[in-house]
Amino acid sequence: MKDKMTPMERAKAIARGETADRLPCNPNVANGVARVYGCKISEFNSNARLIADAQIASYRRFGYDGVRIFTDLFPWAEAMGAKIHFPEDNTADLASPAISDLSQIDNLEAADPYKDGRLPIHIEAMKYLIDELGKEVPCAGGIVGPFTNAFFLLGIEKMSKLIFTNPGVVHRACQVSLETCLRYAQAIIDLGLTPTISEPMSSCTIVSPKHFREFGEPYVKKLVEYINSKGKPVTMHICGKTEKIWEDVVAMGIAGFSVDNVVDLQKCKEQIGDRVKILGHVDPSNVMYAGTPADVREAVVKCVQQAWDSPKGYVIMSGCSLPVETPLRNIEAMMDAAREIGYPIDPEKLDKMI
């Protein structure tokens, strides 16, 4: 099946209440773009042109509704001194935090996105991306939010304890992380792209709502407000369970909220869909990675049934980044299901598709 509109045309039509060819759909292919393009993920670490070309190739193949420069969770912490493990052909992981002793906390400095670590490579990749696709599809630059980044500066286990034993150090790490995020967000905006925020450690699966409100929310909110002040809307993703902080997240002023597949999508729509666009939440592992195209089609239909009438809008999306080895046929099945469903949505047609 072929799209009849570009993502830009589709978004504008839906925003105006007009007929479109389908709902927006974004499988969040992530580093799986390397499988589409035919390169190793490790090559992304030093080659901006390759990062952009792989993203462009994946977009051209599947035709989804957003393209983003984002390779892993750690470029910001790395630029501030953390050590990162780089597998030859898989996504990077944290090797050691930026500081090994709390006495070093005042040595942490905000990163310069044009000089430090891999950040300049990502900025250069964004230039290529928007030059190639900017008039056709929304282009974004991903940022790991300041609360999550602070975990990588201090160490995940250590910060989890410091929240209870030394809140001052946690706030210091969050503040310097925020400065890095603000600088990087400005660099994204200067290029004409839109920042998106990933805050996996804000999940209620990781920290309590109380501790999120004390340590995470103040800094993430400042980042959202800064991006909004520059005339850009913010889409945020938080992994895991988030129900207990939905109201807090929406109150920050985000425009879109991407939710994990463990979330009750219909309840999310009913509680906050009048204030924020909902994105989600086809299971990236059990369905997209391990399922069949028929499983994918059924999952997409069920998600649409639950959320298509969300007042501020709905985007079909995977619940998180897809595993690298997700079968390409399943990504195609997700897009084809969106095309088959069409827009406006016909609930009776949805019922017959399952």
UniProtKB/TrEMBL annotation:
Coiled coil: none annotated. Pfam families: URO-D (PF01208). This is Uroporphyrinogen-III decarboxylase. One of its GO terms (molecular function) is uroporphyrinogen decarboxylase activity. It comes from the Bacteria. It comes from Desulfosporosinus orientis (strain ATCC 19365 / DSM 765 / NCIMB 8382 / VKM B-1628 / Singapore I) (Desulfotomaculum orientis). Residues 6-340 form the Uroporphyrinogen decarboxylase (URO-D) domain. GO terms for biological process: porphyrin-containing compound biosynthetic process. InterPro entries: Methanogen_methyltrans, UROD/MetE-like_sf, Uroporphyrinogen_deCOase. Signal peptide: none annotated.
